[in-house]
Amino acid sequence: MTTDFAATKAMFDLPKGVIYLDGNSLGPLPKGVAERLGRAVTDEWGQMLITGWNKAGWMEMPARVGDRIARLIGVAPGTVVMGDTLSIKVYQALASALELNPSRRVILSDTGNFPSDLYMADGLVRTLGQGYTLRTVAPEDVLDAIDETVAVTMITEVDYRTGRRHDMKAITARAHQMGALAVWDLAHSAGALDCALADCDVDFAVGCTYKYLNSGPGGPAFIYVAPRHAETVRPALSGWLGHESPFAFDLDYRPGRGIERMRVGTPPILQLVALDAALDVWADVTLADLRARSLHLTDAFIAGVEAACPELTLVTPRDHVMRGSQASFRHPEGYAIMQALIARGVIGDFRAPDILRFGLTPLYIDEGDVQAAVAILKDVMDHRLWDRPEYRTRAKVT
Amino acid sequence: MTTDFAATKAMFDLPKGVIYLDGNSLGPLPKGVAERLGRAVTDEWGQMLITGWNKAGWMEMPARVGDRIARLIGVAPGTVVMGDTLSIKVYQALASALELNPSRRVILSDTGNFPSDLYMADGLVRTLGQGYTLRTVAPEDVLDAIDETVAVTMITEVDYRTGRRHDMKAITARAHQMGALAVWDLAHSAGALDCALADCDVDFAVGCTYKYLNSGPGGPAFIYVAPRHAETVRPALSGWLGHESPFAFDLDYRPGRGIERMRVGTPPILQLVALDAALDVWADVTLADLRARSLHLTDAFIAGVEAACPELTLVTPRDHVMRGSQASFRHPEGYAIMQALIARGVIGDFRAPDILRFGLTPLYIDEGDVQAAVAILKDVMDHRLWDRPEYRTRAKVT
């Protein structure tokens, strides 16, 4: 292993006394982000004003930062662009994929997908009308459900609750074999796994950056379009910055070159600056090392919890190839248990109805954190520390 | 006049030697934004981590900040929500308006509209198919073109090039009289005019915040839905944060309460924090004073330029009721003239083919700035200072 994870851990400003196992929901603050963002505000916006779009390179940021993401998902530079939210990018990818496969009407997804993906697909098929439909099956039935009626598969690689990982290569191959296109959501993959999208021959992919890529709350999303489609798709969300010549202010839309056409409106520069600075942590990280370390930490956490807390039931697959970078356990009192953990500095999260979710993120979590978290969880379970009124009162959870 | 515009001017950090007449493209940095954003990064994201969504009030920001915008566009609290870009909000408003008027198929707009609005409408009608179409007429023909085939009008109140202002009340009334709905784009209105949307009975409105509201590059957009429609519309962009209960993670979409349903994905918190801080400048500003001061400054600028530079031809209407908060002039050498001005600290911008555009923004521009800008422009014109190779080489303009 060539990656120095002690060095990456030192690049984060984590609060004292906190073991942060929720980087799969919101990544922590990397050192250097505050200072870089401060400079962008004061020296770029403040001093350059409108000229920052050229002088500070703001206009090119969606593509330039996209290239940095490209390496982390296993695709070539020039195939990824930043902007909007993941939900918007799902809509964009689906609309384009459907248009590339005009004789078919079915979007296939699974019930383990993140609900927003299903909601956006629902909104799209309602807007399209004309017999378009969203078909959902159980996660384990996806492969068999890809038939000759399916226009596009829309699958999130790693289940946000269970951490189960789909077989991207097999599903994409099956989709292509049946004449369908494959759209992948990498929300819990980018920065978490050894993503190899080009190798899997994926058609479209989308993802967010505020989880394993640590861009901060509401960081911009990304979209990947396979080069074979990039000059063919006509975006449904045809905004001016995806135009061939935005500053010609033509009345008619003409899609821009390749991936540039997937841009929509004015990009969120402040969030992009935070992301750009946060990506510096990845400079010396290899994806193979990241994946090995993630599996090692997750194995250790699962083994520790199962030995210490037999009341908790693992829901994440033990099989490495079927697992993302998190471990989830069921318990009827999951909500209260998580509150008790958070009160003791172990931050994971809870997903209804009964799932305790822990993200194992190699950039800043090490074996010592894993052992400490297990010990605190054991203490909470052994002494029923969760059984207090203040832990059972449900606030809105994120 | 009760508003103290010397006080608001003191709330901005403008670079020395710059007269900034491009706040209609990107507003300058208000004092306090850098510090507030720095705290959000370090104390909220850095220390609260995932709990910031509740503890720091991030989750409610789109509605809370929307309420602050509401006052500036003349509508009630609870009718505006922040998020995405203006282009996305245009799509959202149009899709909703069309669905409320299902027997009709025409979006009516004008050729003076900002191109992205036309492009987004084009993308929407292509996605809808089924005979939906975008019809554009000349700006002066809008009122007469609203007939019984029109489902929805999509008009930008102030023309981004000429500064011509449409009659919002008359067009909206005509639309309603003919059975159409009215969508208004406030890109050059919010923070620039005495907007009174509720008084005009507008159905939907959208706008950006990085111009006259000074939220910084890529600041979030807003959308207003009239209360009479808010519980009826079913969003086409049905993201999870517009769901009735986002954290129930239901598989089926159910629209949230009222304006909340126009939320889509995870909101851009860092950009929202910058906007929230920037809105503090407005605390003691009345819209009537803002409008009076804007007209006064624009009159002074127009009179000064016409007296000093007869070669420049005014394209902005002289009539106050037909004018936004900018003054535009034509000259065949407009591009080079603007470059020469910028080199001398007067920052306006250029819009092809021949328009020099100057934003008159009362919050930080005063009579002294206007006189100084006119004097510099006179110098540039009198001595043909624009006629140098370095001013004629066209870079990408924003």
UniProtKB/TrEMBL annotation, chains A, B:
Residues where pyridoxal 5'-phosphate binds: 86-87, 114-117, 156, 185, 188, 210, 240, 266
Cofactor(s) the protein needs: pyridoxal 5'-phosphate
Answer yes or no on keyword Hydrolase: yes
Q: In which pathway does it act?
A: Amino-acid degradation; L-kynurenine degradation; L-alanine and anthranilate from L-kynurenine: step 1/1; Cofactor biosynthesis; NAD(+) biosynthesis; quinolinate from L-kynurenine: step 2/3
Q: Which SUPFAM superfamilies match?
A: PLP-dependent transferases (SSF53383)
Alphabetical list of InterPro entries matching this protein: Kynureninase (IPR010111), PyrdxlP-dep_Trfase (IPR015424), PyrdxlP-dep_Trfase_major (IPR015421), PyrdxlP-dep_Trfase_small (IPR015422)
Cellular component aspect of the GO annotation: cytoplasm
Please write the reaction equations for the catalytic activity of this protein: L-kynurenine + H2O = anthranilate + L-alanine + H(+); 3-hydroxy-L-kynurenine + H2O = 3-hydroxyanthranilate + L-alanine + H(+)
The record's Gene Ontology biological-process terms are: anthranilate metabolic process; L-kynurenine catabolic process; L-tryptophan catabolic process to kynurenine; NAD+ biosynthetic process; quinolinate biosynthetic process
Record keyword Hydrolase present: yes
Q: Which UniProt keywords apply?
A: Hydrolase, Pyridine nucleotide biosynthesis, Pyridoxal phosphate
| EC id | 3.7.1.3
Residues with the N6-(pyridoxal phosphate)lysine modification: 211
Q: Which family does it belong to?
A: Belongs to the kynureninase family.
Q: Which HAMAP family match?
A: Kynureninase (MF_01970)
Q: What is this protein called?
A: Kynureninase
Organism encoding this protein: Gemmobacter megaterium
Report which gene this protein is encoded by.
kynU
